[in-house]
Each structure stands twice: as C-alpha cells, then as structure tokens.
Amino acid sequence: MPAFLVGGYFHTAILEPDKLKNFKIIESTTRNTKAYKEISQGEMCLLQHEVDQCESLVEKIMDNRVCRDLIHGDDVEFERPNITELFGNKWKGKADIVNHSEKLVIDLKTTAELDKFHWSAKKYNYDSQAYIYRELFGYEFVFIAIDKKTGQIGIFDCSTDFYKSGMNKVEKASEAYDLFYKTEGFDPSQYFINKTL
Fold this sequence. Notes:
- The chain is an alpha/beta fold.
- It has 7 helices and 7 strands, in the order αβαβααβββααββα.
- The longest helix has 23 residues, at about 160-180.
C-alpha cells in the first residue's frame, strides 16, 4: 500500500479528522481491478481495507493513555508552522504536535517494522528533522511511531548524538545550497564529488 497515502490518512485522522472527507476511498481488493481503475480515473486512492487498518491504528494510539495525553493534552497545537535561520539560511517546518505543557514537539509516524525504526530514522533523515524542529520550536523532539502490521506503539526521544548527526546533515545541506544558489558564477555541470576509498 502506498505509505504516503496511508501515513497521510493516519495523520489526518488523529490531527484533523474533519478533513477525512477529502480522501477518496474505493471498495476494491487491489488497485489493479477494473472497478478501481474506473473509479480512480488515474488518481491514487485509498482502498477501504487500508482505511480500516488505519482506523485500527488510530484507535490503538488514542486508547493508549500516554499517547492520548501527549497528543490531546491541555496546551497543544496541531500542524503548527514556524521559520528559523540555521547556518545562514531560512528553514521552515510544520510540526504535527507542539505540546507546550510537556515542552515537546511530537511527530507521528507509521512504520513497516517498529523494531527497525532506529534504522529508518537514519535512512529517512529523521535526525535532521528532529534537529530542525528542536531549533524551530525550542522544545525536545519525540516520535510516536506505530507498526502498521502489529499495532505496536513506540515512543522515541532523541539523544544528543542523534541531534548532532541531524545538525551535521543540515549544515552540509546549507553548504550545498550556498554553493549551488549563492555562489556567483557557479556552474553545476562542473560539480563533482572527489573521495578516496
């Protein structure tokens, strides 16, 4: 199933349930059926069984007292945007949840395997995200992740090393941005990476 669609539905169901009506849902076993192709008209749509699975995950998150309190505490904001400057460049982001009572920025994630979330966090640059959002909002960053298959919940805080790794990636990205967009006369066709193995 398309992870981005399922993840989007999951986020919306928890943070903005009034917007669920914007999702096109088709009662079909797969996206290869004639019925799906006719109804979707080439658009990527959710299948009803994917929505059912998502609803089950949302229920598991909201049935967990710790998760529910972090997400729907006394002083929380959803989908909160902000802008800051890092390494001489403007960075913007929109936090899923800013919990002012707990002084946390919380990001919701669905994952294929919760046991491997720490690897996914590096692979998908969640360390950069954590660093940027900590700088954007001034609070520590926490991931609430749920395994799409088992429904197992994980709450992952960020170590000093994780933030530092993210900071290094953001600094490197800023240097690349400066080179490509702020260096007069720079010719990207002449750019290459030179390393010794």
